[in-house]
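Hi all, posting the design record for the shared folder.

TITLE: backbone redesign
STEP: 1 of 1
STRUCTURE INPUT:
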């Protein structure tokens, strides 16, 4: 399982591949060194799912570990509703849906399908607005794009140069710990 990728890292990789390296460096340290308000809100939002305290229908799957040997990915789903065959990813707030978030949902979808579950719908649930946002199921071209993306993640070398995007860097939780930039974090 050395080359299996955690589903939770897919969006982070698109945001900044180097942030995954920094996450691994600092993961044993005090989170207060680098966590900011968005991560704290996200953790709180996920708490009800992680502790399986969310309201759900009888027999729905909540916070279940999933894995795909075909794609060599693993992670957890937030919610699968048997009644509507819908896979739901909960987010506290969604001003935009980023490609990495779509990849995370697709990854969960592919895992469930490989595990024999029938998934007919995908959606994000925005907790702050109590709004369900449907997402189309991935097609053949989406699958190719996803496989290509996973190859890129596996080939990434943290010693390579990164494109510094000052707006992204300012909002990165590792900004002040990063050796690739000299930008101040907006969360200070």
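Okay, here is what came back for every position:
SEQUENCE:
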């Amino acid at each position: 399982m050395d080359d299996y990728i955690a589903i939770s890292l897919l969006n982070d990789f698109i945001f900044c591949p180097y942030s995954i390296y920094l996450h691994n460096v600092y993961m044993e340290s005090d989170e207060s060194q680098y966590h900011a308000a968005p991560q704290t809100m996200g953790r709180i939002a996920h708490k009800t799912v992680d502790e399986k305290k969310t309201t759900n229908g009888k027999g729905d799957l909540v916070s279940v570990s999933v894995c795909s040997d075909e794609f060599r990915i693993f992670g957890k789903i937030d919610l699968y509703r048997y009644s509507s065959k819908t896979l739901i990813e909960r987010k506290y707030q969604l001003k935009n849906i980023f490609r990495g978030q779509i990849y995370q949902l697709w990854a969960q979808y592919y895992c469930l399908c490989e595990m024999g579950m029938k998934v007919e719908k995908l959606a994000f649930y925005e907790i702050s607005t109590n709004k369900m946002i449907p997402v189309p199921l991935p097609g053949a071209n989406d699958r190719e794009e996803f496989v290509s993306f996973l190859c890129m993640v596996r080939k990434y070398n943290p010693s390579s140069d990164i494109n510094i995007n000052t707006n992204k860097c300012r909002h990165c939780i590792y900004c002040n710990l990063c050796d690739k930039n000299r930008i101040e974090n907006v969360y200070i």
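COMMENT: The helical segments are 9-15, 17-26, 37-50, 99-114, 140-155, 166-170.
Let me know if anyone wants the other runs.
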